[in-house]
Known about the structure:
Elements: H1 5-22, H2 35-48, H3 63-75, H4 81-105, H5 111-124, H6 134-155, H7 161-175, H8 183-198, H9 202-229, H10 233-247, H11 262-272, H12 284-300, H13 333-349, H14 352-359, H15 365-375, E1 382-385, H16 393-397, H17 414-425, E2 429-436, H18 443-446, E3 454-467, H19 472-477, E4 493-504
Parallel strand pairs: 1-2
Antiparallel strand pairs: 2-4, 3-4
Helix pairs in contact: 1-4, 1-5, 2-3, 4-5, 4-6, 5-13, 6-7, 6-8, 6-12, 7-9, 8-12
Amino acid sequence: MNYGLKGRLFLPLFAVLLITLFSTCSFLYPLNPWDDANVYMTIGNAMLAGKELYVDIFDHKGPVLFFLHEWAAMLSRSSFVGIYLIEIVCCYFFLLYSLKMMRLFTASTLTIPLTCLLGILTYSSDFFSYGDSVEEFALPIFAHSLYLMLKFVRDREVPSRFQSLVMGLGVALLFWMKFNLLFFYVGGLLVVAVIAWKRKQMKELGSVVLWAFLGFLAVTAGVLAYFALHGTLAALWEAYFMVNIFHYHGVGTNGEPPFWWFKLVKLGIWAVLMIPVFFLKVSREVKWLVFGTYGILVLSFATLTVQFYYFLTLFPFFALAVRLRVPKFLKNLKVLKVIIPIITLLATATNWNVVTLVNGTFPTSVLEMARIINQNETEDSEVLTFSSYDTGIYQHTRHLPPNRNYFLSSILDPEIKREQAEWVNSGKVRYLVREIGAINTCHEYYEAPIPANYRLIFDQEELFRYRFIWQPLSYLWNLTWPRPLLRHFMEPVTANQKMQVYERQP
């Protein structure tokens, strides 16, 4: 589809702007403070240094995520510049296919401004968090697949072999990063299969599935070949499949209220957002497709503790809002030119990353911790994040974890406690780094006393974000956080966490 020269030039630049402004992987920010992102980067660095994934260093996420971070580590071991570039590419393709979806239903010149508005609301929202989440990487893949399914359902246009192959590649990338995201395709495939059967297009659909499967196999063959060559297929099976299916229970609560109905309320809000679909001027088949993909994806969130960034994967569906019956004055380009900058300003002003950066309250304790360790560097300066999360200390000291289970895991495993204690008691670790979280997570399970031969040399508290609910506008946008008391509408929901460094005494 030809979406115009302006779109071709503008969308990439706008993607750069969004990621630079809102992702803490960008050069505007001194670091990415999210422990998950730091885990991915630490493992990428470790793999680049020759450590075997899942054998010498462990996390339960899929291997493709760590391959991406190994590539990023080639560009920089101490920053997220490689992930920043990947985010820009992902953002561009998300915007591109969102624009294409809008243009399926309207020829209006407003589609580019509306695409920009969708991009602003997506990447400034609290669901985007600090950046570098699997859900963020899923955005362009979902948008591309949803666009192809809409083309088939609405226009009876069967994806080409190349388009089907690319869709299969995207499905495989998601499968080998976080396989539960494939619930999106369960609903979509069921709806598309029923429609194809009614239209007597099962042969054409079979061809699409075949080429998509070939794309899936291409990525899967590469992943399996990698582990086969390294002799670690058993480790892949155990760490990625067995652990995630049988042992990972999402024990972190993110401070959620301890009420059994809270999860239902949270999911119910997103279900209510589907109601406007009834009023779309589209065929019943399109509505079925939206309900099938969106609905089953939301239902999949009903398992375990739902992390707020999971809901980022629902944003591709909002490209369809262009078909809603909105007031006529909002369809005026001149009016949009006024409204969009206002919304952009408000979204930026309520974004946690931007606000804390401007106010000088962005969490940077790890940089001071790294400075202390680096200025006293010796041959035995081994560092261990003891009974703690990954603070990012390994990036900023250019050290690698000494052990496999080097950070506090969401898997309650006594072996992890034993291994950490063994390394501390060995006398090989000079520095113990701790991040004592502000929320109720599995930290209590892994809490361990600091050995007597270690002295505290750094102790500082820094702000930790639950959610940034600064005013009613950001509360309404942050729909995964329905607080029971009105006073919370106007308050930042934050707390302090401790950042500590202990040094072994002679």
